[in-house]
Amino acid sequence: MAILELILQIVLGITSLLLTLLILLHKGRGGGLSDMFGGGMSASYGSSGLAERNLNRFTVVLALVWFVTIVGLGLITKFQGLAG
């Protein structure tokens, strides 16, 4: 069970970093921090609709993997407490 927990912790770390990067790549919807870092300037140029949709899909899939990893680690922790 320890090897599964280690694998899930590594997956959690990697998905957390990737999820943060993907969220930061999204186009700003106006106002807020995205304008402070140049998001407002590039909003008029815009990215292609296909690229934005693919970015949304990757983000959602990665968020689901992150969520399943969190639930898996929680279940492992719970059952280790019952067994020990």
Structural account:
The chain is an all-alpha fold. It has one domain. Helices cover 80% and strands 0% of the residues. The chain contains four helices and no strands. α1 packs antiparallel against α4 (49-83). It is elongated, with a radius of gyration of 18 Å. The model has no long low-confidence stretch (mean pLDDT 84). This is Protein-export membrane protein SecG. The chain crosses the membrane at residues 6-25, 58-76. Involved in protein export. Participates in an early event of protein translocation.
What is the fold's blueprint, element by element?
Blueprint: H1 2-25, H2 33-36, H3 39-42, H4 49-83
Helix pairs in contact: 1-4
Distance between the termini: 13 Å
Strand tally is 0
Number of domains: 1
Shape: elongated
- Biggest pleated-sheet summary: none
Figure out the total of helices: 4
Q: Per DSSP, what share of the residues sits in E-state strands of 2 or more residues?
A: under 5%
CA radius of gyration is: 18 Å
Going by helix content, strand content and strand pairing, the class is mainly alpha
Overall pLDDT, averaged?
84
Uncertain regions spanning at least 5 consecutive residues: none
Helicity, in percent?
over 70%
